Each structure stands twice: as structure tokens, then as C-alpha cells.
Amino acid sequence: MFNSRVGTSATLLQSLTRRTIPRQARPFLFPPSTRLAPPHLRRRSFASSAARPNTKTDWRAMAENDITQYLRQTHDRVFEHNCRWAADCKAKDPDYFVKLSAGQTPEYLWIGCSDSRIPAEQITGLEPGDAFVHRNIANLVCNTDLNVMSVITYAVEHLKVKHIVVCGHYGCGGVKAAMTPKDLGLLNPWLRNIRDVYRLHEQELDAIADDDARYNRLVELNVYEQCRNVVKSASVQQSFAKNKFPVVHGWVFGFNDGLLKDLKVDFEGMLKDIQKIYNLTES
Ligand SMILES: [Zn+2]
């Protein structure tokens, strides 16, 4: 069923197999702290920080003192950015935080992957207060996961969100790991949910000869199935019967062009379909 030639996500495996950082005598050069730079030269983006070691080899090349310094810098940098962000917000609108403190009425519930490259607000232009966000590996909605089910219930019943978006992404390490015949320990039961998606669509997926195309299609089918799981929830079914919202959407983000693809999930058709078996609208 699965193709063993498809490699497990390097990122995922690195995080699974990262070992204690070894001692090394060779020093590592760091960029000067942004705190020392004049304001007009300070970096505006955390992601643009230079000289960040990103391979196992880089870590092994670092002396213990350098590692300590690097950890302090990467910690402090977040607070520097936070101070600048808060000051910018206040400069644009002196009442910004007064309004933010008043409460939230988000229009969207975003269920996305934990992948660090897909920040929900930044890729959609949404502002703080616009989206209630839940993220986990491979954007899964499992009915035994108290976390995601609590998020959905709260978002629908209390925040009255109008849209629920399940957003997957091409190149998802979780999906790729699930396509790999390996024992990943604690991740096995989580990734089993994606293997179940493969089983449900085995015929279609097995008919795709190209490895990348089959992987991309599994990403999309996983989003479809997680949308279906959202629709199966009592809160969504009952709210839609009463209010005609929320509507459930399935999207996929692409790293190649930074664009979101709308899978155009037929929400009402899906709702009608699942209610034959999963109808929870009667109390
Ligand atoms: Zn992912």
C-alpha cells in the first residue's frame, strides 16, 4: 500500500532523534545582538535571523559557551520583537490594547498543522482577534482528542464562529511519516489516523503512480476527512441546524507559491451524507 521509497520527513525525524548536544572546542560565530544595532538596522522579522544553525552538523560544531549564548540570544530576541510589536500597535492605535482586552469575537476557527512555516494569521492577513486557532501535527480532528474537540465546542457554542477552516499543506512531514513503514513510537497512534485516511481511499491513491502526486493527494484527502470529522461533531451539527453556521472549509497551503488552495468541500452535502449515521441534532 505505502511506498517505502518515500522518505520520512527530515524535520520530523531530526526532532525525534535529536541527541544531547555534544561538547566541541571549535567556536561558533554569532550575529551581534539586535539590541546593539541602531533602530533602523534592527531586524524586523524573527524568521530572518541569520546564522541560525539548522543541521545536526552545525550543533556539533558549537562550543558549550556558544550554545549557551545562542540560547540566550534566541530567547531574548523574542522579547525584543514583542516590545517592538506592542509599541508599533500602540503607535498606530493608542486604544489598540484597550480594544483587545474587551474580548474576542473571531469569525474563523482555524485548525492547521503545527508546522512552523504556516502561521495562520500571516498567510491570510487576519489580525489578532480574527481567528481562534488550533494546531497539531497534520491538522487532525480525532473525536477522542479532548483538546481539539474542546476547541471546536468552545468556538462554535460560545464564540459563535461563522467559518471552520481545516488547513493542511503540501510537504506535510506528518503525512509523509504516515506513508513510511516505520515504528515512530509515541507518534504511531497519532499517525494511525492518516493511515486510516489512506485505507479509506486506498484504491484512488494506489492508482497514482507518481510518488509526489500520491503524497499530495493524501494531504488533500486528509483535509477532506478531517472536515468530515468536524462535521460529525454535535456542536457543529446543532449550530448549523439552528443558525445556518458555521460552514466548514478545507484548504491546502503550498510552499512553492505561498497560496492557499480551496478544496471546495461541499459542506452541506457532507453534512447530509454523514447525518445518515452520525446525526446528533436531537437532544
Ligand atoms: Zn504538516
UniProtKB/TrEMBL annotation:
| Cofactor(s) needed for function | Zn(2+)
Can you provide one Gene Ontology molecular function annotated for this UniProt record?
A: zinc ion binding
Superkingdom classification of source: Eukaryota
Enzyme Commission no: 4.2.1.1
Key words, A-Z: Lyase, Metal-binding, Zinc
Principal EC category: lyase
Name the reaction it catalyses.
hydrogencarbonate + H(+) = CO2 + H2O
Asked if the Swiss-Prot or TrEMBL record annotates the protein with the keyword Zinc, the reply is: yes
Which residues of this UniProt protein bind Zn(2+)? 113, 115, 169, 172
The note on the cofactor says: Binds 1 zinc ion per subunit.
What do the Gene Ontology cellular component annotations say?
A: cytoplasm
An example of a Gene Ontology BP annotation on this entry? cellular response to oxidative stress
Under the heading Pfam families, the entry gives: Pro_CA (PF00484)
Protein family = Belongs to the beta-class carbonic anhydrase family.
Q: What does this protein do?
A: Reversible hydration of carbon dioxide.
How is this protein named in the record?
A: Carbonic anhydrase
